[in-house]
Amino acid sequence: MTAASPTRFALLALSIASALAVGNTAFAQDANPPAAAPAKGQNGKPVQLETVNVTAEKRVENIQKVPVSMTVVTPEQLGNYGQAGDTVLQLAGRAPSVYAETSYGREFPRFYIRGLGNSDFDLNSSQPVSMVYDDIVQENPILKGFPLFDLAQVEVLRGPQGTMFGRNSPAGVIKFDSAKPSQETSGYAKASYGTKGTANAEAALGGSLGGNWSGRVSALAQHRDGWIDNDYTGKKDALGGYNDRAVRFQAMYDVQDFNALINVHARWLDGSAMVNRANAIPLGSDSFVPGFDRNVVYQDGNNRQHLFTWGSNVHLTWNLGDYTLTSITGFEKADTYSLGDVDGGIAVAQNPSQLPYVTPFPSETADALPHDRQITQEFRLASNPQDRLNWQVGTYYFNENIAIVNYDYNTLDNHALDGYAQQSQKTTAYALFGSTDYHLTDDFDVRAGARWSHDSRDFHVDRILSPIGSGPLSLGANPHDSRWSGDLTGTWAVNQNVNVYGRVANGFRAPSVQGRVLFADFISQAKPETITSYELGVKTTSFDNRLRFNADIFDYTMHNQQLTAVGGDLNVTRLVNAKETQGHGAEFDMEAYVTPNFILTAGGSYNHTKLEDPTLAVAPCGAGCTILNPLDANGNVLINGNSLPNAPEWIGNLTARYGIPYGESGEFFIYTDWTYRSEVNFFLYDSEEFRGKPMLQGGVRVGYNWDFGKREIALYGRNITNKQYITGAIDFDNRTAFVNDPRIIGVEFRADF
């Protein structure tokens, strides 16, 4: 990849947008434009893209008017992506610069935006991508995996969001909004069944509860049979199965100047933790070993996972004439236990056929979160929409109290306890924030915001037993930090269809602590990370509102980036800070009605990231691998100049839907979606083995709907090429790999009412 590549990419995107702008301007200035009838759909109405309203800046606005790089994922798209029981990880690649992975199975997603994320697997780890569900930040990584169902939309905000969302959002925000109750009766039900015993059932019903009250209840149930054989134990279909269930209850009270929305939700998950594959990667290669079979493992350890989360939030809104006062109170609670055979193999070979699965020593670990309680409170006062000046101010409070238990088992000794550590963490944060939006002229708008945040953390470890000793560990001074963040944006309306904006923003991630102490005698800490980002973008609509095209270029510098040095030959995971990280790139989103019956969407991004810290070194692999970076005098790997882990340079997505009208209210259709990401490194150091090859995955859906789309039956396929990819690895005792799910083919029926 040459240095000019991102520039060429950005110029191409902005040139297309500029051409659209010129075309729109020329058409507007033509006194006698050519007569042309607008394209019409099956019902005879003009075909146009619907206006997309978002709440990226905590007020309802047209996405084309919001000067932030963002993508909206619709419920229809989520329905197509999630037919085979996919988790929130289905969003990986569905928006430019967005990637996601996990080493935990279904309950612990790790998201990356513009290359910025955190590969830490500890249960108190923080992430620079904030997940916000119905205006409540989901801080603990266990909470971030709540299933996607009965949503109004998903908003992906790229770049620092320090003003409106504050701490732990320097990379961006993914914002989930549930479908809200209304007085009108509405709902849906759908069910699907596919290969590997993959079943999905989902339903929602809402309407009037009498008087000024309305309500909505929605539920999801997902199941897959075990499909991975453990040939060491001889048990067929031993792993890979799950039962995942979730519910949401909402009640709304609405009168002229007051609205109250109450939300209660819960999730239950039982199934397999991540299934590790011992020695799946050959020395000197990033491919699978010859004869690798995704459907078979040889493991002498246990594997199981259980999760229960529940929460509630209350939104209160008062219309005070020229102002609106909002109060948002949130409560979240989680309890989980996850046990996995980390080495992914067997410690002693019983016959020659098992030799490829032998590991140097057994490793079977479990993490438990017996207590996780989060309370949040936000107050916000905002001006009601005015012609020139709009503003809002607010306060925010966050309090979290968690307990974590780490277990390490000796697999060869009848699973006798070999290590145990108990941790507790209390976090308190509060903030004051404000923003203004001022129209200097009819064509030029300035937005500015600032936020002051304070964060403090109290962390303790009571180490009961470990291979290196026992007893409590002291953190010393508890980490705390106070910091300003904010943004400044200018927007120029070229015409009614084209907006150009420039944005400068900063953000931060609060200090982090990690107590992965079973194989260490210290508590790991990381200083706050800060980021300053510059962004130039254009948002356009064209061709009678049948084409929407948005593009941007960006550049950022991050100081003291918090990174996780995972495993290695020391088998110790620790937090480190990199002095400086540079990133730049370009992104675009496009949606178009090519014909009245053919709709196409596409998105893409280029991200270049680079660590700049000449002295930063991490432990090399302990599994035997080919290190590509230089070593320091202590035998550790110098990572200066490396790209970030799990940060693909290229991400792309494409969807296409073609319908064939049939009868007065029916339609045959075919839909396909594809995502692509380029090569990624799994760890901070570069090696021949621990990286993922470019990944291309697609799905297809073919079916028939009738009664103007209210009824639908379809055949679907996910990962239709059935190609195997390495999606992650473990490097401390063998070349263990995680792999993607196999192809799933099934049938689905849906009814709306």
Strand segment count: 43
Number of helices: 2
Distance between the termini: 51 Å
* Overall average residue pLDDT: 89
Describe the global form. Answer: globular
Beta-strand content: over 45%
Describe this structure in words.
With 753 residues, the chain is mostly beta strands. 4% of the residues lie in helices and 55% in strands. It contains 2 helices and 43 strands. The protein has a 22-stranded antiparallel β-barrel. β41 (726-730) and β42 form a beta hairpin. The protein starts with a helix and ends with a strand. The model is unreliable at 1-38 (pLDDT under 50).
How are the SSEs placed, and which strands pair?
Elements: H1 5-29, E1 53-54, E2 61-62, E3 70-73, H2 75-81, E4 98-101, E5 110-113, E6 129-133, E7 136-137, E8 151-158, E9 172-178, E10 186-194, E11 198-210, E12 213-224, E13 228-230, E14 235-239, E15 242-255, E16 258-271, E17 296-297, E18 304-319, E19 323-341, E20 364-383, E21 389-410, E22 416-439, E23 444-466, E24 469-473, E25 480-495, E26 498-509, E27 512-514, E28 524-526, E29 529-542, E30 547-565, E31 574-595, E32 598-612, E33 617-618, E34 637-638, E35 650-662, E36 666-677, E37 680-681, E38 691-692, E39 695-706, E40 711-718, E41 726-730, E42 736-739, E43 744-752
Parallel strand pairs: 6-9, 13-17
Antiparallel strand pairs: 1-2, 3-8, 4-5, 6-7, 8-9, 10-11, 10-43, 11-12, 12-15, 13-14, 15-16, 16-18, 18-19, 19-20, 20-21, 21-22, 22-23, 23-24, 23-25, 25-26, 26-29, 27-28, 29-30, 30-31, 31-32, 32-35, 33-34, 35-36, 36-39, 37-38, 39-40, 40-43, 41-42
